[in-house]
Amino acid sequence: MPSAIDIIWIGVGCVSGMLAVIHFEAWRVRRSESLQLTLSVLAVTVAGSAFLELAALRASTVADYAFAYRWANALSLPMVVATVMLVLSVSAGRRRLAAVVILTRAVATVANFSSGDSVGYKEFTDLRLIVTPWGDTVSGPIGQLNPWLAVGMASNLLLLVFLGDAMHGLFRRPPSPDRSRRLRIVGGVLAFATVVIVYSVSVIVLGAPMPIAVAPHYLLMLLIVGRELGSELARSADLAAALRLSESSLHETRRDMELAERSGGLALWSWRPGSDEIALSDAGRSMVGLRPGARFTHEEQCQRLEPDDHPLIRDLLAKVLNGEAEQLKAQLRVRLSGGQLRWLAVFGNATRSDAGNLIELHGVAFDLSEQGELDEQFKAVVGASPTAMLLVAEDGRILMANESAMQLTGYPRDELLGRSIEALVPEESAHGHPAHRRVYSAAASQRRMSPRRDVMLRRREGTRVPVEVALNSVTIHGNAFVVAAVTDLRERLEKELEIANQRNMLAHMSRVALLSELSGSLAHEINQPLTAILSNAQASVRYLDRPQPDLVEVKEGLIEVIESAKRAGEVIRRLRAMLRNDPPEMAMLDVNVAVKDVVRIVRSDLIECGVGYSVQLDEGLPMVLGDQVQLQQVLINLINNACDAMDGTGRGKHLRLSTGKAEGGVVLGVSDSGQGIPEADLARIFEPFVSSKADGLGFGLALCTTLIEAQGGRIWATNNPDVGATFHVLLREYKNDRAE
Amino acid sequence: VVSNGSAQVAGGQEKLLVVYVVDDDDAVRGGIARVLRSAGVTVRAFESAARFLDEVEQAENACILLDLTMDGITGSQAQETLNERGISLPVITVSARDDFDTRQRAKSLGAKMFLRKPVDDQALLDAINWVLNPRQGV
Question: Cβ of A318: how many Cβ atoms within 10 Å?
Answer without folding.
Answer: 11
